[in-house]
């Protein structure tokens, strides 16, 4: 019926489909926070703040003392601590973890609550920046829910980090407050100063040097990702066109109805059997590589 070369088309399309699936999964990775922020044309390089930081805030609650201890790493997941019990720390994939620890005289410390504030799977940051008289960058990361300490209703946690521009600054971050929902941290640091493309940034000279290549990387991976998405879309369109045109062809030339409309129907009927053959072929080659087991296989 159909000319020979055309009957190879479905097989080609099918194999393209299988090849492209793992590619799209691997490329789906640019939603992660990579410590480079660009707001209203201003760029901030937070890689200089990478690494783990622990900051404490102490509240006197006689006869005991409560320590709110925030551990965070902006650019990577926190590592598990060896000397702390598993239930007393956040699980892997956490970037900011708040532990509330109660101390009373000579009694052993007691971890009251462990609150994951930022998780890298749902990091979702929002930014605002001041560029005029007071230069700063505020990042708010939304986190998972944790029961409110008073009402116990699940409350979305967030991490409000304000980086105040201080060209000479190399201070430690300061734990301002935690209200049961939002941790506020303020940090005087160079990283709060925007670095512009070109040379008029001046002060942030070294970060200017580091900026362009990494940004190009980001651009490249993003365009690669969208290229693959585009390829996938074209593939779907090709499939749709193939079935649409094939059905129309069968309909107008043979007056086909129902399943007869499917182009290369005989080929598509064969596909499940072909797959079965491939699988059984693979299985038998695996089995024949381990001939010792052969005698024991129950049939
Ligand atoms: C995403 O990228 C980061 C670093 O860029 C890498 O460490 C991580 O393994 C990647 N994740 C996936 C799922 O590819
Ligand atoms: C914060 O408090 C914890 C728990 O008491 C303590 O282990 C840690 O050393 C403190 N860190 C700093 C930087 O004060
Ligand atoms: C983050 O903290 C700053 C300083 O307290 C505040 O002005 C701002 O509204 C906070 N942002 C959010 C989204 O809560
Ligand atoms: C990515 O590339 C486009 C055009 O190629 C450019 O306008 C844009 O500034 C680049 N983005 C970054 C973050 O470098």
Automatic annotation (TrEMBL):
The keyword Transmembrane applies. One of its GO terms (biological process) is protein transport. Its main location: membrane. It is a single-pass type I membrane protein; Single-pass membrane protein. It comes from the Eukaryota. GO terms for cellular component: cytoplasmic vesicle membrane; Golgi membrane; mitochondrial membrane; phagophore assembly site membrane. Residues 189-222 are annotated as: Disordered. Residues 1-26 form the signal peptide. This is Autophagy-related protein 27. Residues 33-195 form the MRH domain. It is found in: Cytoplasmic vesicle membrane; Golgi apparatus membrane; Mitochondrion membrane; Preautophagosomal structure membrane. It comes from Collybia nuda. Keywords: Autophagy, Cytoplasmic vesicle, Disulfide bond, Golgi apparatus, Membrane, Mitochondrion, Protein transport, Signal, Transmembrane, Transmembrane helix, Transport. Belongs to the ATG27 family. Residues 197-220 have a biased composition (Basic and acidic residues). PROSITE patterns: MRH. The keyword Kinase does not apply. The chain crosses the membrane at residues 228-249. It holds the Pfam family ATG27.
